[in-house]
Specification:
The protein is mainly alpha-helical. It has a domain at about 225-253. Helices cover about 40% and strands about 5% of the residues. The protein contains 8 helices and 6 strands. The protein has helices at about 1-15, 45-55, 80-85, 120-125, 135-140, 145-155, 200-215, 220-250; strands at about 20, 25-30, 90-95, 100-105, 170, 180. The strands form 3 sheets. It has a two-stranded antiparallel ribbon. The protein starts with a helix and ends with a helix. The protein binds heme C (HEC). Heme C binds near residues 129, 148 and 185.
């Protein structure tokens, strides 16, 4: 019981240094996140870096279809920055009065544009494999963000000698079955971070995973602070009830 309690406590406080067992028995190393634990919060600078990685690297294959430009205000951008950002993209609109569809610059209310117009186009460009939408990905796989992070840094220079890769597949330490249709997406110095952070593979993987955690659960911080409020409320209530119980029973003894 004590052990169970300790386990629960470490999990709650986000101190757990354990590892999640993924499919195929590969252990996923636990990673320390700013948003782990009861009091965890997102790191805005990290979310902006992660968005930059998504936009410059992942977005050529993966969509984040549940995100509109205006949602990015959560990342600490100003409304003007978001307007300017959206305007860099074109979206299809219409029909106009002549019944024609037309292209126009995106506005903050528009969804973040899809990487491919449809699944067939996405598969055709990726050797038959479908790059899944990343909006909910950080929570969709066993291991959550730890898995996404491990996957992104999990490309060894050479696959193990005894592995025969299928055509168009790449070796990954953490993908179930180890053969993945996504080539290693990150290389040292691939992006030039606006805030000057050195763009190591680990840094980019961590930043883009934090960003994916935000797209998967933009209300994480509100949920956590609500949790803390509820616990405090229950503690106070317990104190009051205990005092009341003592008072009532003191008259009966
Ligand atoms: C060249 C296209 C391409 C790029 C660029 C790319 N991916 Fe992928 N990604 C894929 C494909 C294809 C798959 C499906 C792999 C499969 O099922 O074998 C995939 C799968 C994934 C998965 C799901 C793995 C699983 O467990 O199913 C994640 C997470 C992911 N990519 C994240 C990223 C991130 C983050 C980036 C940017 C740093 C990125 N990808 C860049 C093509 C790409």
């Amino acid at each position: 019981m004590k052990k169970l309690f300790a386990l629960g406590l470490t999990a709650v406080l986000g101190l757990g240094a354990g590892a999640v067992q993924a499919a195929e028995g590969v252990a996923i190393p636990a990673h320390q996140w700013s948003f782990s634990g009861l009091f965890g919060t997102f790191d805005r600078a990290q979310l902006q870096r992660g968005f930059q990685v998504h936009r410059e690297v992942c977005a050529s294959c993966h969509s984040i279809e549940f995100i509109s430009f205006r949602n990015l205000i959560d990342l600490g951008y100003t409304p003007d920055e978001i307007k300017a950002l959206a305007a860099e993209y074109t979206v299809m609109d219409g029909p106009n009065d002549d019944g024609d569809m037309f292209e126009r610059p995106a506005i903050p209310a528009d969804r973040y544009p899809l990487a491919f117009p449809n699944e067939q186009a996405a598969r055709a460009a990726n050797n038959g494999a479908y790059p899944p939408d990343l909006s909910l990905m950080a929570k969709a796989r066993k291991g959550g963000p730890d898995y996404s992070y491990a996957l992104l840094i999990g490309y060894p220079e050479e696959p193990p000698a005894d592995v025969e890769l299928m055509d168009g597949m790449y070796y990954n330490d953490y993908f179930p079955g180890h053969q993945i249709a996504m080539p290693a997406p990150l290389f040292e110095g691939l992006v030039e971070y606006a805030d000057g952070t050195p763009a190591t593979v680990e840094q980019m993987a961590e930043d883009v995973t934090a960003f994916m955690m935000w797209t998967a659960e933009p209300n994480l911080e509100a949920r956590k602070s609500m949790g803390v409020t509820v616990i405090l409320f229950l503690l106070v209530l317990t104190g009051i009830l205990y005092a009341v119980k003592k008072k009532i029973w003191s008259d009966l003894h």
